[in-house]
């Protein structure tokens, strides 16, 4: 199990190096994520400025639930975001064979 965890960390480091290769694209992507989350919280703030409580729920409680709901979404993207590529990109384009000849499990390369 530790071997797979270590390999997964190596894959994550390589992926970060890959996406940081184009610095402007990386910065725009990170800013886009922060802008999206900021606008979502701004929307909730504007909503609660006009309506102090919704069925007893306050802004802080709704913001907590919103933030807490992002945890499973983040875990899903971290571990399973590339599973769609298995059939779409690898099998259809014939790139799947290079993963079949490696020592690790095929699913280790998709997450």
> How do the SSEs run, as a string of H and E?
HHHHHH
Biggest β-sheet strands, sense, barrel: none
Give the helix/strand class: mainly alpha
Shape: elongated
Q: Could you list the spans in which at least 5 consecutive residues all have pLDDT below 50?
A: none
Radius of gyration: 20 Å
Counting H and I runs of at least 4 residues, what is the number of helices? 6
Total domains, how many?
2
N-to-C terminal Cα separation, in Å? 15 Å
Task: Describe the overall structure.
This protein has two domains: 1-51, no CATH class; 53-99. It is 77% helix and 0% strand. It has helices spanning 2-19, 23-50, 59-80, 84-91, 97-100, 106-110. Keywords: Membrane, Transmembrane, Transmembrane helix.
What order do the helices and strands come in, and which of them pair?
Layout: H1 2-19, H2 23-50, H3 59-80, H4 84-91, H5 97-100, H6 106-110
Protein name: ABC-type multidrug transport system, permease component
Organism: Streptococcus gordonii
Keywords: Membrane, Transmembrane, Transmembrane helix
In short:
Pfam families: ABC2_membrane_6. With 111 residues, the chain is mainly α. Helices cover 77% and strands 0% of the residues.
Give keywords.
111 residues; mainly alpha; 2 domains; 6 helices; 77% helix; elongated; ABC-type multidrug transport system, permease component; membrane; transmembrane helix; transmembrane
